[in-house]
Amino acid sequence: MNYNQSRQSRSSTVSMTGSSGENSDLSWSVYGGYERYRNGDSGASTTFGGNLQQNTRFGALRVNYDQGDNYRQEGLGVSGTLVLHPGGLTAGPYTSDTFALIHADGAQGAVVQNGQGAVVDHFGYAILPSLSPYRVNNVTLDTRKMRSDTELTGGSQQIVPYAGAIARVNFATISGKAVLISVKMPDGGIPPMGR
């Protein structure tokens, strides 16, 4: 809450913000304001509004509404990035001028750490939206939501990109099904280990 007073007017504003979701993917804010004039200008004005933003693995969706005594404004926005590369077209969050295109074949569902919700798509690609140029950057994939028949041979890599670069980061994967084999000797016993 905010309250201001001067010779000409008195004003107050109330606002609230919040977020929800595992990574605060949904955020919102609302506000309302009132101003009363003193010096011969009879009258008052009120304003109110709010916005809502949903971050997805493909970018952000926004909607906002603002209204005052003599105006009303509504807005709808979408932001994100599309990268065309030899492996196809990859969608992701809005990027800075230095970012990474990650390739991890078969790692669908792996989450890019510090990737603003970016997830490896079904073609094996994801976008890490921001890197620090000329510095060591750790690129890490969280495999907890990845397909169960694929395994990363290394979950983290380090890169040092130039300013304005789109760094390609490749993660090696192994795909297959786990098999459990039970072996018994002709007499029903377990075979000896290590021979």
TrEMBL record:
Domain of life: Bacteria
Bias kind Low complexity: ranges: 9-21
Cellular component, GO, one term: cell outer membrane
GO MF: fimbrial usher porin activity
Pfam families, alphabetized: Usher (PF00577)
Protein name: Fimbrial outer membrane usher protein StbC
Region (Disordered) location: 1-23
A GO BP entry: pilus assembly
Gene that produces this protein: fimD_6
